[in-house]
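Look over what follows to help learners.
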Amino acid sequence: MKNYSIVRIGNEYVVQADEKSVLKIASRRRAARLVTDATELLDSQPAAPLSAGVDAESSIDRDPRVIPDPRVIPDPRDHT
C-alpha cells in the first residue's frame, strides 16, 4: 500500500488507504503492524493483469440469463 495513513478517531485508530477507511483497531502499533504485513503480502503476489472495462469472463462464456453479483470477485485460477 503506497498511500496509507493511520488516524486516531476517539479511542480507536483507523487505517486509511487512498483516503478510504479500511480498518478500525484499538492499537496504533497493531494497526502499523497490520499495514506492514499487508504490504508484504501484496508485494509477494504477482500483479494481476487489468483490462480496461472488461470482465474476467468474456461475454461469450457467460450465460446471458445469469446476472453476475458485482460484490463477488471471480478467482482468476478458475479458468478451466
About this structure: The chain has a mean pLDDT of 75. The first helix runs from residue 28 to 44. Residues 1-41 form one domain. The CA atoms of residues 41 and 47 lie 12 Å apart.
